[in-house]
Amino acid sequence: MSKIIIAIDGFSSTGKSTVAKQLAKKLNYIYVDTGAMYRAVAYFALENEYIGEGFFKEEALIGSLEQINITFKFNETLGFAEVYLNGKNIESDIRTLKVSKYVSPVATLSEVRSKLVEQQQIMGKDKGIVMDGRDIGTVVFPEAELKIFMTASAETRATRRYKELLERGHDLSYEDVLENVTTRDHIDSTREDSPLVKAEDAIEIDNSYLTIEEQLASISEMANQLILK
Ligand code: DC
Predict the structure, then answer these.
(1) Could you identify the atom of ligand 1 that is nearest to the CA of residue 116?
(2) Which residues have CB under 8 Å from 69's CB, separation 6+?
(3) Domains of the chain with CATH codes
(4) Residue ID of nearest Cα to ligand 1 atom 15
């Protein structure tokens, strides 16, 4: 049996991580949520006041990138790896609407991207990995054996995200979430460096009307065919 790299890209809140996480578990593969890494940098930028309402001190952030150390540590209880910034668990701090608001501008910076891409490529060097993000099949692992591109309508995605945030106790409106989803789509797909695009050889899955089980079944089937080759 050979180990493969599975790249799962797509717009925000398409449920990529839910499927990627379960797929990795099923295959006994490592799962890496690259969005969490960009969120960690955005969180660092907010904490240090390099970014905020109406300002973005890009050079200051770029100059501080060496101080950022992002790691993942598997949490047995939760069943997935949580993200740490300089040794501090920031898994729940990075899931706020505030971080979601500032992460896309931070992710446009080439210096941020090259630092994170380098780390991602090291994590996948032995294969046996499921990685989700925006540029995994195009930039991080253009040679990945299996590439999936997930889509769903903006309203479907905003509804899912809204419910998820409400369940976590956040106080916000559906309109705020929809606005964040569409703004992020726009920034992510129009930025100069590594915009969100479907890789030519990626398989597109519109999951607006698919359950997680259905998505998992079809992606596992594709992966198993490649693994058993
Ligand atoms: O997957 P997510 O919504 O947690 O990602 C947060 C942001 O990070 C997303 O709006 C764009 C950026 N991102 C990126 O530019 N490249 C990736 N590989 C993953 C995320």
Answers:
(1) 18
(2) 85, 86, 87
(3) 5-227 (3.40.50.300)
(4) 107
